C-alpha cells in the first residue's frame, strides 16, 4: 500500500470476480480493489508507446502519427526504398520502408497513419514493416497482461469498481499544484488510464502521474539533503590574495572553470556545509578548479583531503598540486607510502595542509587535526560507505565530488540537487579534437598502419581490451598481445588487474618513459592517466563498452596539441551506435544515449539509482517537470502550517510512511 489506513475492499466482493479469477489475481499480488486500480494498463490497443524518449535501440513498436513530408521513392537503390517524416508526440521521426513502392501513391502529407517497425535510436529512424491508414473513432482497448485473464474482463471489473465506488483513492498532491498545472485528481487519473474515452484522457492521466512521481522524488531528495546539512560559520577568505594567485597562472581559466570556481566560493559563504558535484569532460581542467577551491582553507589553517581511486591518479594529483601550491605542505598517502606511521602522525599534528591519497585515507588510524574540505575524484568509483567514512572525519562536511564520466543533467540533479552541480564543457584552447574511426575486425590492417606511424614519431599508443583472457571474448590481453607482436615492431607493455601493485606501477613507468611504445591494458586506464605524447588509442571488442566508457577511454589521448586518433574495433555490425562516437565528442550527449540503453545504474551505481525506477517519468525528456516539482516542494515545506493543516493530511501520511522526514 502506498498510503496507510486505506479501507481495503477485497476483490471477491466485486460482482464478476469468481474463484478462478481470484486465484489468478492473487498469484499476481492483486488482493484488493485498490491493488487492481494501481495495476493500470501496460499499453493500449497496438499503440505501444507515447514517448519517443522511452524507446531503446531496435525496439519493435507500433505507433500512430501524421505524415509531415511527401513520400520519396528511391527505385535505384539495390532494394526499392520509400521514406517520409511523421509527427510523433511532438517530435519528427523519419520512416523508411523497403519494397513498398505503392506507399507514394496511397499516402499523402496530413494523413494519419499507423506504422509498425523497428526503432533505430542512433539515427532516430523507424524501419517500417507495415504502414496503414488510421481508422477514425477507433475504440481504445487497454492491455493488462495479468495472467491469462482477457483484457475486456479486467476492464469490466474496473468499470464496476468505479461505478459502485468500491475503492478509496486519496489525493496526495496539494490542490494549489493541481490547479496550477491543470492536472486531474488522483482518482480521476486512474479512471482515465483504465477507462479512457480518448487518447487525450491517457495523455492527461500520464501527465498527472509524471508530476506525482517527480513530486515524490523531490520530497525524498529534499529530506536527504536536509539530513546531510551541517551548520557551520561561513568561510572567510582574502579574495585579493586569491585573485593574485589566479593572475599568476600560466593560462587563463575557461568561462566554465570561472563559473565552477564562483559556484564553490558561493557555497563557502553559506552558513552550512555544502556538497557540490563538478562534472567535466575528460581534459576540461577540473583539477585546477579544485586546486583553487583549497585556497580559503589554506588561508584559515584548515586541512584538505583529496581521495583518488588509484595510486597512479593520486600520484598525478600530488605532483600537480605541488607544482601549483608551492608554499603549501602537501603529502601523499597510499598503500605504498614509506614510513606511513610517521606521515599519519604528522597529519594528526597539523603538519600537512593537504593530504592526497587513495582508500588509505579512510583507515581508522588516519586522524586529521581540523579537516575543512574533502575532494573525491571519480566519485562513482567509490561506494557510498567509503565516501562517508572520509566525510565523517571532517568537522563540517564540505565536499567536492569530481567526475569525468558525463552524467545526464537529470541524473546529476537527482543525485546532488539542481543548485549543487557545476558543469565544465569547454576544453583548454590548445587541445585538438581526437579523430575517431570505427573499424570492423577485417579492416584491422588500417589500425596497424596508424600505430606504425605513431611509433615512428616516438609517440605513445594505448590498446584496450575488455578481458585478460576469456573464452567469451576473442579480443583479450592474451590474443591481442600475440597479434600486436606479429604485426608491429615496438616495445609492448601490459597492464591489468591481476598484476600486483608493484607490477602495475613498473609496467606503467616503463611505458611512460619509453617513447614509441605500446601499452596493452584492460579498462584500468580509463581514469586520469595523463601522458601528453599519447596520441593513439585502439579499443577492441567495442560492443562490450557503453558510449560513455568509450568516450572516457578516448580521453586518454588528445591531451596536448599533437594530432590524436581513436580507433573503435568491433566484430559485430555495431555500426549505428559506434558511429555516434565518431560524430561527436560531446560526452553529455553520448551519456544520454547510454541512459536510454543501459539505465541510471551505469552513472550513479546501483545504490543511488535504485529509487529511479519510474512508471511514468522519463529522466531525459521530463527535466522541466522535475524542476517545477523541485520549486513546488521547496515552497510547500516553507509554509508554516504544512505539518498542521488538514488539507495536507494524505500527503503527510505518505511522507510519514515512505520518506520519514
Can you characterise this structure?
- It is built from 24 helices and 21 strands.
- The protein is an alpha/beta fold and 661 residues long.
- The protein folds into four domains: 78 residues, Nucleic acid-binding proteins (OB fold (Dihydrolipoamide Acetyltransferase, E2P), Beta Barrel), CATH 2.40.50.140; 95 residues, no CATH class; 186 residues, Rossmann fold; 150 residues, Rossmann fold (3-Layer(aba) Sandwich).
- Strands 11-12-10-13-14-9-15 form a seven-stranded parallel sheet, sandwiched between helices.
- Strand 6 and strand 7 form a beta hairpin.
- The longest helix is centred in the first third of the chain and has 30 residues.
- The protein is globular.
- The two termini are 19 Å apart.
Strand-pairing-aware structural class: alpha/beta
Q: Rg, please?
A: 29 Å
Indicate the percent of residues in helices. Answer: 25-40%
How many helices? 24
Count of the separate structural domains: 4
β-strand amount:
15-25%
**CATH homologous superfamily designation of the largest domain:** P-loop containing nucleotide triphosphate hydrolases
CATH level 1 class label of the largest domain? Alpha Beta
> Which architecture of the largest domain per CATH?
3-Layer(aba) Sandwich
What's the number of extended β-strand segments? 21
Q: Tell me about the biggest sheet?
A: 7 strands, parallel
Strand order across the largest sheet = 11-12-10-13-14-9-15
* Average pLDDT taken over every residue: 86
Low-confidence segments: 1-5
Overall, the morphology is globular
First-to-last CA distance = 19 Å
What is the fold named in CATH at topology level of the largest domain?
Answer: Rossmann fold
Amino acid at each position: 500500500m502506498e498510503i496507510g489506513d486505506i479501507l481495503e475492499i477485497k476483490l471477491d466482493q466485486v460482482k464478476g470476480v469468481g474463484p478462478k479469477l481470484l486465484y489468478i489475481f492473487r498469484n499476481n499480488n492483486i488482493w484488493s480493489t485498490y491493488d487492481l486500480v494501481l495495476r493500470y494498463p501496460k499499453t493500449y490497443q497496438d499503440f505501444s508507446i507515447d514517448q519517443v524518449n522511452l524507446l531503446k535501440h531496435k525496439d519493435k513498436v507500433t505507433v500512430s502519427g501524421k505524415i509531415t513530408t511527401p513520400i520519396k521513392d528511391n527505385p535505384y537503390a539495390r532494394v526499392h526504398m520509400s521514406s517520409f517524416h511523421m509527427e510523433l508526440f511532438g517530435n519528427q521521426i523519419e520512416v523508411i520502408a523497403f519494397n513498398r513502392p505503392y506507399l507514394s501513391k496511397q499516402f499523402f502529407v496530413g494523413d494519419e497513419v499507423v506504422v509498425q517497425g523497428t526503432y533505430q535510436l542512433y539515427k532516430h529512424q523507424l524501419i517500417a514493416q507495415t504502414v496503414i491508414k488510421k481508422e477514425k473513432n477507433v475504440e481504445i482497448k487497454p492491455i493488462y497482461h495479468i495472467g491469462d485473464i482477457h483484457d475486456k474482463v479486467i476492464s469490466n471489473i474496473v468499470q464496476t469498481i468505479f461505478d459502485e465506488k468500491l475503492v478509496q483513492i486519496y489525493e496526495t498532491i496539494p490542490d494549489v499544484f493541481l490547479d496550477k498545472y491543470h492536472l486531474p485528481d488522483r482518482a480521476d487519473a486512474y479512471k482515465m488510464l483504465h477507462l479512457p474515452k480518448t487518447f487525450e484522457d491517457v495523455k492527461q492521466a500520464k501527465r498527472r502521474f509524471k508530476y506525482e512521481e517527480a513530486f515524490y522524488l523531490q520530497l525524498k531528495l529534499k529530506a536527504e539533503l536536509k539530513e546531510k546539512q551541517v551548520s557551520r560559520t561561513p568561510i572567510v577568505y582574502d579574495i585579493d590574495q586569491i585573485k593574485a594567485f589566479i593572475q599568476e597562472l600560466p593560462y587563463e581559466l575557461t568561462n566554465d572553470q570561472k563559473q565552477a570556481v564562483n559556484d564553490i566560493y558561493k557555497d563557502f559563504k553559506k552558513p552550512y556545509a555544502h556538497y557540490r558535484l563538478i562534472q567535466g569532460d575528460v581534459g576540461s581542467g577540473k583539477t585546477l578548479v579544485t586546486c583553487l577551491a583549497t585556497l580559503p582553507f589554506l588561508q584559515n589553517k584548515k586541512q584538505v583531503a583529496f581521495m583518488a581511486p588509484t595510486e597512479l591518479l593520486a600520484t598525478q594529483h600530488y605532483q600537480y598540486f605541488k607544482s601549483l601550491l608551492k608554499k603549501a605542505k602537501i603529502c601523499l598517502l597510499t598503500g605504498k607510502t614509506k614510513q606511513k606511521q610517521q606521515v599519519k602522525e604528522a597529519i594528526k599534528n597539523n603538519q600537512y595542509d593537504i593530504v592526497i591519497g587513495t582508500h588509505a585515507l579512510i583507515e581508522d588510524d588516519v586522524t586529521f587535526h581540523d579537516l575543512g574540505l574533502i575532494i573525491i575524484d571519480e566519485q562513482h568509483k567509490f561506494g557510498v560507505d567509503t565516501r562517508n567514512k572520509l566525510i565523517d572525519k571532517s568537522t563540517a562536511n564540505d565536499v567536492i565530488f569530481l567526475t569525468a564520466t558525463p552524467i545526464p543533467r537529470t541524473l546529476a540533479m537527482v543525485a546532488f540537487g539542481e543548485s549543487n552541480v557545476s558543469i565544465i564543457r569547454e576544453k583548454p584552447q590548445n587541445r585538438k579534437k581526437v579523430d575517431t574511426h570505427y573499424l570492423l575486425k577485417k579492416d584491422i590492417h588500417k589500425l596497424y598502419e596508424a600505430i606504425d606511424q605513431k611509433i615512428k614519431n616516438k609517440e605513445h599508443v594505448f590498446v584496450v581490451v575488455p578481458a585478460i583472457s576469456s573464452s567469451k571474448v576473442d579480443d583479450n590481453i592474451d590474443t591481442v598481445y600475440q597479434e600486436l607482436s606479429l604485426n608491429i615492431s615496438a616495445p609492448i607493455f601490459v597492464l591489468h588487474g591481476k598484476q600486483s601493485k608493484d607490477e602495475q606501477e613498473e609496467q606503467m613507468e616503463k611505458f611512460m618513459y619509453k617513447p614509441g611504445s605500446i601499452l596493452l591494458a584492460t579498462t584500468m586506464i580509463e581514469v586520469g592517466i595523463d601522458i601528453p605524447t599519447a596520441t593513439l588509442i585502439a579499443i577492441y571488442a567495442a560492443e562490450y563498452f557503453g558510449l560513455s566508457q568509450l568516450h572516457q577511454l578516448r580521453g586518454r589521448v588528445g591531451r596536448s596539441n599533437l594530432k590524436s586518433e581513436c580507433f573503435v574495433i568491433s566484430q559485430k555490425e555495431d555500426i549505428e551506435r559506434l558511429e555516434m562516437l565518431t560524430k561527436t565528442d560531446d560526452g553529455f550527449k553520448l551519456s544520454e544515449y547510454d541512459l536510454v540503453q543501459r539505465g541510471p545504474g551505469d552513472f550513479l551505481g546501483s545504490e543511488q539509482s535504485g529509487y529511479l525506477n519510474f512508471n511514468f517519468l522519463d529522466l531525459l525528456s521530463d527535466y522541466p517537470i522535475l524542476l517545477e516539482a523541485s520549486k513546488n516542494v521547496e515552497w510547500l515545506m516553507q509554509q508554516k502550517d504544512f505539518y498542521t493543516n488538514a488539507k495536507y493530511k494524505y500527503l503527510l501520511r505518505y511522507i510519514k510512511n515512505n520518506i520519514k522526514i
